[in-house]
Amino acid sequence: MTRGAETTTKASDLLVQALEREGVHYVFGVPGEENLDFVESLRISGIKLILTRHEQGAAFMAATYGRLTGKAGVCLATLGPGATNFATPAAYAHLGGFPLIMITGQKPIKKSKQGQFQIIDIVNLFDPICKMSKQIVHGDTIPALVREAFRTAEEERPGAVLLELPEDIAEEQCTAQVIEPHQRYYAVADDTVLSDAVDLVKKAKMPLILIGAGANRKNVRSAISDFVHSTRIPFFVTQMGKGVVDERSELFLGTAALSSGDYLHCAIDRTDLIINIGHDVVEKPPFFMESGGKKVIHVNYKSARVDQVYFPQVEVVGDLAASIARLQDKLGTDLRFDLSYFETVRQEVESHISEGVDDPRFPVTPQRFVADTRRVMGDKDIIALDNGIYKIWYARNYKAYEPNTVLLDNALATMGAGLPSAMAAAFLNPDRRVMAICGDGGFMMNSQEVETAVRLNLNLVILVLNDGSYGMIRWKQAAAGFADWGLEFNNPDFVKYAESYGASGHRIEATDDLVPVFENAFEAGGVHLIDLPVDYSENQKVLIDELAAKACLL
Prior knowledge:
The chain is built from 22 helices and 22 strands. By secondary structure, the chain is an alpha/beta fold. It has a six-stranded parallel beta sheet, with helices on both faces. The chain has a six-stranded parallel beta sheet with strand order 13-12-11-14-15-16, sandwiched between helices. A six-stranded parallel beta sheet has the order 18-17-19-20-22-21, with helices on both faces.
């Protein structure tokens, strides 16, 4: 409309126009009455609303959209209880480094007829778990706030941003114009620091490369793979760094999935230099630095966050791919290291993770169900893990061949994210096999999203690992010497539960049936839930006792 000589735009329309200019195609959410102007603006736009059954489901999907694309995922909730349901996904994105924009509603701020009904200070509540948290107080500020929100969410280190849109602001008329986004380029480490890094590498006798989550956020696979195979330095990965370099490589030593005691830690203990690519201390530390101990070269988009266990001697800061390529060029190929011990460790790791891959016992053991998962998933197919003891088994035993094909959370490590994360992966990659892998406890925390998956016509297999308990905590409880108490529960009939949503349900009753059921489900398409009884009795024996008995000998 026009106001005098000026053309004006409704604020909610302006917000949607700004989102469109940022390249947003989807908004995941559960609207409320305070969002209705915004919802109407979405209706007449080119952006599709993906309606979910819980705000957590929406925000976990949006965060995974950001994780996989590098572009911030966008989610929507109303005020009060709708907005507070974003808290866990916000922390998930904040700690995991996933770009996420959360848009929440609010009562009118100029004049309210409902007192404090449903009103809490969402902006300040979210401030500690967001990179930016703002209330929109005037429609004309929307273009600048949206541009800043996306820049902030997507730039290293990525994370969550909250924008609160009050009802009366959403309906007001504005004269502002949207702001054009622009490409962000990162600087490259300079020659001086690269020379310092080269000196450390050439002085090292037994160097290792560590690849962390930051290397999975950008397209740096080629540069890091070239660096690894040019220098011939063995590498290991954090749980969230899996797949950056093909783990079938003869230089791959394993995943730092356990805090200590694994064979891999024998190699970490012996190394005199770690080239640490894309890792930060948010992930559970894969090694600890000590005064006078191993040297560390920090290679990342941003400088190190120093604490008592991480204080690198050299920081190569800048664009990862360019920095690694320049470091490789300066190192050349005439490098000589003593890597015989690392080969011994690699062989022990390979031997240990190959044990039990054909174990016929039923209920199924972790070694077998992890191996059977790997048997049916192609190089670029995606597994998305919820949180539980099985996450450790998959991190150690499931080799990733491509970046972002093992989606797990080793930062916030929240339950309930596995299913929505897999749904986002299936939504974005309809041509790939996608499997959600959830414990029965974590699955039930957002199981209502099965209806969303069916409604979206996703091709998705949901593997529910059924042991009738919170298994990870139960394992820790036993390891601490406490009585086995307080962690067991009853489950619904998962087959009927899936079918009630319109999905297909399957119950595994013999171990050898698992692979055929996987294959048939993927071939059929649609949403399939597989109820798999599991036996975790080997957790202590394999992950603790056997490693303690042998690792110390290495």
